[in-house]
UniProtKB/TrEMBL annotation:
Source organism of the structure: Bullifex porci
Cofactors that this protein relies on: pyridoxal 5'-phosphate
Gene Ontology biological process terms in this record: carboxylic acid metabolic process
Similarity annotation: Belongs to the group II decarboxylase family.
Signal peptide: none
Modified residues (N6-(pyridoxal phosphate)lysine): K310
GO cellular component: cytoplasm
Record PANTHER family: CYSTEINE SULFINIC ACID DECARBOXYLASE, GLUTAMATE DECARBOXYLASE-RELATED
Matching SUPFAM superfamilies: PLP-dependent transferases (SSF53383)
Bilayer-spanning residue ranges: none
Name of the molecule in the record: Diaminobutyrate decarboxylase
Annotated keywords: Decarboxylase, Lyase, Pyridoxal phosphate
Length: 476
């Protein structure tokens, strides 16, 4: 059988053997490309662009898999980012556990979709039990539920839509789902930290409120929402005729890993009948650690965003939204005769499309199941403790050194710092390290350019941290 006649997987032994060979050859190529702890080849972007632009994307006649893999091995694999490298630490972009990488193969081969039960029977049931366990893990009761999404932005958007619909239904006696937006719509306001994720501004745009209706609350020295100032701002808005409907607690800000006080924000939310959402895309993994108490009382929130491609160390992308009251998910429910017939659901077939913005969804809950079963609570505790303790080790190492400026004391695994010699030097340090195969982050704190270590790799050692500190000091 010629290669161009093999279309899709089947029970045919020859086709199964062809897939086995393709996977083995691909894996060999990938493993052969891993020959150092550099996370990046260091190639200049213009040189890399010339290499990539030389690839003929759609030839008139296909060249076959073997030749294609050879070209990818030569021109692409050497310059892909090695997220598993301990030299990679700029973003909330984690290495992936080995068992989770293996699970991606299962997900891709079977290609189940999580919209209707008949497109993923076992996958649907797996999402249900994983969501149930997550609700239990974060302290939610029997009335809770959740759904997997494409990422933290998708989870946060879902929460914003739910909060809007709930407020309009209960406070304005208006059904947005059926009637569209109420006359008072432009008075609705969202409140979030001034250093929260930009997905809330995006969500406000998408639902028709716009950026101006997102109020960015001031933060304190620990980069947490200043709840006294927040209460005053919301009180003034309410008295001026605005309609506060959502307040967001960030459980691990992108730059600083800072954690907002959920209990105090809940008190503000209750006073104005607001929806409280916890964006725990970053910090949710710490629920598995010995430091889980740092997260606060997350079970007080109406919903929680959980990202598994951050501290949980799973491949991109994998996120979910869990809700305290499953009825809030009903805003996404809509029946179609070809997809999620009501009579099927009455007979016990669960069609998850009624909980999600997306229709087609990957069976991402499977990789959560496989990782959780493989590692267990103790395995995850060990890994996440290590990354949190690595951040503390690095912070302690530089905080009293007069050469360094340090940002807030880390609560999770991010440390913001700078060399005390001006913004331009710190920018040059980051670029110089990247050219040598080490990538660290850059941000701004108190109007200063700062560097950042986002330490999500449990394989990182104190010795490697010491080497990086020494290398950074050499640029002074």
């Amino acid at each position: 059988m010629r290669e161009n006649e093999i279309y899709v997987l089947s029970s045919n032994p020859e086709i199964k053997e062809t897939l086995r060979s393709m996977i083995i050859n691909t894996l060999d190529a990938v493993l052969s490309s891993i020959d150092s702890d550099r996370c990046y080849s260091g190639i200049d972007p213009n040189d890399l662009r010339r290499i990539i632009n030389s690839i003929e994307v759609l030839p008139e006649n296909g060249i076959g898999f073997d030749k294609t893999l050879k070209r990818v091995e030569e021109d692409v694999l050497p310059h892909l980012l090695s997220t598993w490298s301990t030299s990679y630490m700029p973003h909330l972009h984690s290495p992936a556990l080995l068992e989770a990488i293996a699970s991606e193969l299962i997900i891709a081969i079977f290609n189940d979709s999580l919209d209707s039960w008949d497109q993923g029977p076992a996958a649907t049931e797996i999402e249900l039990i994983v969501i149930k366990k997550l609700c239990e893990l974060f302290g939610y009761g029997e009335d809770s539920d959740g759904v997997f999404t494409s990422g933290g932005s998708g989870s946060n958007l879902s929460a914003v839509i739910q909060a809007r619909d709930k407020f309009c239904n209960e406070q304005l006696n208006w059904d947005v789902k059926k009637k569209g937006l109420p006359a008072e719509y432009k008075k609705l306001r969202i409140y979030t930290s001034s250093i929260s994720h930009f997905s809330f501004d995006k969500a406000s745009h998408i639902i028709g409120l716009g950026y101006d209706n997102v109020v960015h609350l001031p933060v304190n020295e620990k980069c947490q929402i200043d709840t006294l100032k927040a209460a005053e701002i919301i009180k003034n808005d309410y008295e001026d005729g605005y309609l506060p409907f959502l307040i967001v607690a960030t459980i691990g800000t992108t730059d600083f890993g800072s954690i907002d006080n959920v209990k105090e924000l809940k008190q503000i939310a209750d006073k104005y009948n607001m929806y409280l959402h916890c964006d725990a895309a970053y910090g949710s993994g710490a629920i598995m650690s010995s430091y889980s108490s740092r997260l606060g009382e997350l079970s007080l929130a109406d919903s929680i965003t959980i990202d598994f491609h951050k501290m949980f160390l799973l491949p991109i992308s994998c996120s979910c939204l869990i809700v305290k009251n499953k009825k809030t998910l009903e805003c996404f429910e809509l029946h179609a005769d070809y997809l999620n017939r009501e009579e099927d659901e009455e007979d016990g077939y669960v069609n998850l499309v009624g909980k999600a913005i997306q229709t087609t969804r990957r069976a991402d809950a499977l990789k959560v199941l496989i990782a959780f079963m493989t590692r267990g609570r103790d395995g995850y505790r060990s890994m996440i403790d290590r990354v949190i303790e690595n951040a503390q080790y690095f912070y302690n190492k530089i905080k009293d050194d007069p050469l360094f400026i340090t940002g807030p004391k880390p609560e999770l695994s991010s440390v913001v710092f700078a060399i005390n010699k001006g913004d331009e030097l710190n920018k040059r340090i980051r670029r110089a390290l990247m050219s040598k195969g080490t990538i660290i982050g850059q941000t701004v704190w108190k109007e200063k350019v700062m560097l950042k270590f986002t330490l999500l790799n449990p394989a990182l050692t104190h010795e490697k941290i010491d080497e990086l500190v020494k290398a950074i000091k050499e640029y002074k």
